[in-house]
Amino acid sequence: MSESAEVLAARIKKRFGASIGACRVDAGQITVEVDAGSLRSVCNVLRDEEEFAFAQLMDLCGVDYLDFGRADWETSESATNEGFSRGVELREDRQEETDLSRYVVVYHLLSLTHNQRLRLKTEAPGVPPCVDSVVEIWSSADWFEREAFDLYGILFDGHPDLRRILTDYGFIGHPFRKDFPLIGEVEVRYDPEKRRVVNEAVSIEPRTLVPRVIRHDQRYSHEDPNDA
Fold first, then answer.
1. Alpha-carbon dihedral angle through residues 97, 98, 99, 104, given to the nearest 10 degrees
2. How far apart are CA 14 and CA 20, in angstroms?
3. Residue 205 gets which letter from DSSP?
4. C-alpha span between 72 and 211 (Å, rounded)
5. Average pLDDT over residues 190-200
6. Whose CA is closest to 133, among 60, 52, 183?
7. Residues 6+ apart with CB under 8 A from 209
8. Per DSSP, which regions of 91-212 are E strands?
9. What totals of helices (H) and strands (E) does the chain contain, helices first?
10. How far apart are the first and last CA of the chain?
11. What pLDDT was estimated at residue 141?
């Protein structure tokens, strides 16, 4: 599988040249980075030309790279008996800018003809983030793009019916964004006086739990205890 992946990657680089960004093979899987402006043309070629024949879109998802590579809390290196503890100190640099675009859309393609898989990645620029829809290329993208819109707020230009698909009517925000509160914005309960379900502002206080289970004992030692 790794050899065929290398061959396919070479074909993709030769066919598209500067139209694509990085094209790498990792663990037998090919990942191709595509500029948002070239997305549709690249996808059309990957579907229609016989040497690729990626006739199926298996999955599409959004990614939020906010604070990528940085933890919210600095923790102590010592172990705790409780296993979980509050963070020691809130990081002051957690809002620093990174070189990564915040929102990315990932496409997983399948070619039954050649028994090959391919992953495409494209940045979703703008505020709000937006990329071209690929529904006209792969009809299976319809609900996938609606899901990415619902959870990440990514718009898909040209989608025939871009509306929420998982969250409830009147839901505010996009729950898979990294800055969306883990406790949510509203809570639901039954009001016996009104005799109906009501929505209210969430009453739970946010709390950050950071695992601290670094223990320096024989369970994590590479030395043979019989040598002691």
1. -110
2. 10
3. P
4. 13
5. 90
6. 60
7. 84, 85, 86
8. 103-111, 116-123, 130-132, 155-157, 186-191, 196-201, 209-211
9. 3, 13
10. 46
11. 96
Report residue 8 as tokens.
Answer: 């396919």
List C-alpha distances in Å: 214 to 80, 100, 187, 208, 210: 8, 31, 36, 18, 12
The per-residue pLDDT for 183 is 82
Beta bridge partners of 103: 64
Could you tell me if 126 and 137 are in contact, meaning their C-beta atoms sit under 8 angstroms apart?
Answer: no
pLDDT at 95: 43
Q: Please give the C-alpha separations between residue 79 and each of 20, 210, 211, in angstroms, as whole numbers.
A: 47, 12, 10
DSSP 8-state secondary structure symbol assigned to residue 125: -
Amino acid at 16: F
The pLDDT of residue 224: 62
Cβ burial 158-180 (10 Å sphere, 16+ → b, else e): ebeebeebeeeeeeeebbbbeeb
Query: 221 in helix, strand or coil?
Result: coil
77 Cβ contact list (under 8 Å, min separation 6): 214
Q: Residue 140's pLDDT is what?
A: 95
Burial of 132 (0-12, 13-18, 19+ CB in 10 A): buried
Closest among 203, 207, 164 to 185, alpha carbons compared: 203
Q: How many Cα neighbours within 13 Å face the side chain of 57?
A: 23
Confidence of residue 1 (pLDDT cuts 50, 70, 90): very low
CA distances to 50, 58, 85, 86, 156 from 110, rounded to whole Å, are 13, 7, 44, 44, 22
Rounded Cα–Cα distance for residues 86 and 227 (Å) = 38
For residue 17, give the amino acid letter: G
- CA–CA separation, 141 vs 120, rounded Å? 14
Containing 107, the helix (H) or strand (E) segment is: strand 103-111
